[in-house]
Design brief:
Strand order of the largest sheet: 6-3-8-7
Structural class: alpha+beta
Strand content: 5-15%
Number of strands: 9
Shape: elongated
Order of helices and strands: HHEEHHHHHHHEEEHEHEEHEH
Radius of gyration: 37 Å
Largest sheet: 4 strands, antiparallel
């Protein structure tokens, strides 16, 4: 009876299911699918980020800390990218030279070292050897509480600033060439070098005795400025032949005119020749300006007879036209007893002795306490030559 009344009330049509309830069910299903989709996307992004940003070990170094406990330092690819950048820049800057020597780029050149490696492999080994030593010295420095002073940190900051300034926009975006990574790299290197200097200082090397072994006579330097013009020309067979009498007379006249100006000039290097393209060669005559740090024992500048004449010149003296078999010269003696070459040789002798003694100490007493292991990523995935240059 009650049922019949409900039907009549609704004009014989059964009550429909509430639209609100249907909508709620569909929305719940949509939300679940949406959440699942977001989770899948996040998971995929996570995988991509992990692949791109995960640490890629290139070297592990195992040793002990100050308490004798075993420790292992892991060096990741990102940690050494600045070192790769420096290595690649070094060799790329000398590309023209290597093209002349090897007839190819340094990276492709064969038999670069005694093991027959090509340039890329030789540079890679050299870099890894230095990374091993740096990490070992860094771990030793930590054991000996070696830290950087405020002044040393300031120098690190300055180096970081200069490094970033020299980089292209694409290089700055590389993970490992960002500011924090570069700073960490330079700080580690600086601490390692500081500890190395401590080791060298403790070796007690007598620098004065080493400097005394350098001959002041042999390394006496004659600092010269000069103008010159050739007396020869290419013979077409990688050799030289004399100029014609006409060209020889022309060149001699040109250098004589230069001598007349030079002997009266306040500045020997200016307003003597016409050089609009700033290449140190007269635009019309071919007279060339140059400098020479002539060492007492040098034999490759002019001939012996002319060198003896030059060495007798007084400071600020300008010569007459001097003639060798190959060229005419006008010389100005800037300093006939310059100590630069002697000082440089003293520094070289001291530096070589320090490096030699340190190497002995390192190989005997430090390196054996550590185990280094090159990781597979370095062995199989790293090829120097175009990593940071974009080549």
């Amino acid at each position: 009876m009650n049922s019949a009344k409900k039907i009549m009330k609704n004009q014989g049509v059964k009550t429909a299911v509430s639209p609100k309830k249907v909508s709620s069910g569909m929305e719940l299903k949509t939300k679940v699918l949406l959440i699942l989709g977001i989770l899948a996307a996040v998971g995929l992004c996570g995988i991509v980020l992990f692949i791109n940003l995960r640490p890629r070990p290139v070297l592990t170094v195992s040793g002990t800390d100050s308490e004798g406990k075993a420790v292992t330092n892991t060096v990741n690819y990102k940690d050494v990218l600045y070192d790769i950048y420096g290595t690649e820049a070094q060799y790329n800057n000398m590309e023209q030279l290597y093209q002349q020597i090897y007839g190819s780029s340094f990276w492709e050149a064969e038999n670069v070292d005694s093991a027959g490696r090509n340039g890329a492999s030789a540079a890679k080994k050299e870099l890894m050897d230095s990374l091993k030593q740096r990490e070992i010295l860094y771990m030793e420095a930590q054991k000996n509480n070696i830290t950087l002073t405020d002044e040393e940190k300031k120098k690190v900051d300055e180096e970081v600033t200069q490094a970033i300034k020299a980089m292209s926009d694409s290089q700055k975006k590389m993970k490992g060439l960002d500011e924090d990574s570069i700073r960490a790299n330079i700080e580690k290197r600086t601490i390692s070098e500081k500890y190395k200097e401590k080791i060298i200082k403790d070796l007690g090397i007598d620098e004065n005795a080493l400097k005394a072994s350098v001959s002041k006579t042999d390394y006496r330097q004659y600092t010269l400025q000069y103008y010159t013009i050739t007396k020869t020309q290419d013979d077409g067979n990688n050799g030289k032949k004399a100029l014609s009498k006409e060209d020889l007379a022309k060149n001699k006249k040109a250098i004589e005119e230069v001598q007349k100006k030079a002997v009266k000039a306040e500045d020997f290097s200016k307003n003597i020749i016409t050089d609009k393209n700033d290449d140190s060669i007269d635009d019309s005559t071919g007279v060339e300006y140059g400098t020479e740090d002539l060492i007492e024992t040098d034999t490759d500048f002019m001939d012996e007879k002319t060198r003896k004449l030059v060495k007798k010149m007084k400071n600020d003296e300008v010569s007459a036209v001097l003639e060798t078999d190959e060229a005419f010269y006008v010389i100005k003696m800037v300093n006939n007893n310059d100590t630069e070459a002697y000082d440089n040789q003293c520094d070289t002798v001291v530096s070589q002795e320090k490096e030699s003694k340190f190497s002995e100490k390192y190989k005997k007493d430090i390196k054996p306490n550590y185990k280094t292991e090159i990781q597979s990523y370095w062995k199989g995935r790293v090829t120097l030559g175009g990593i940071t240059s974009g080549n």
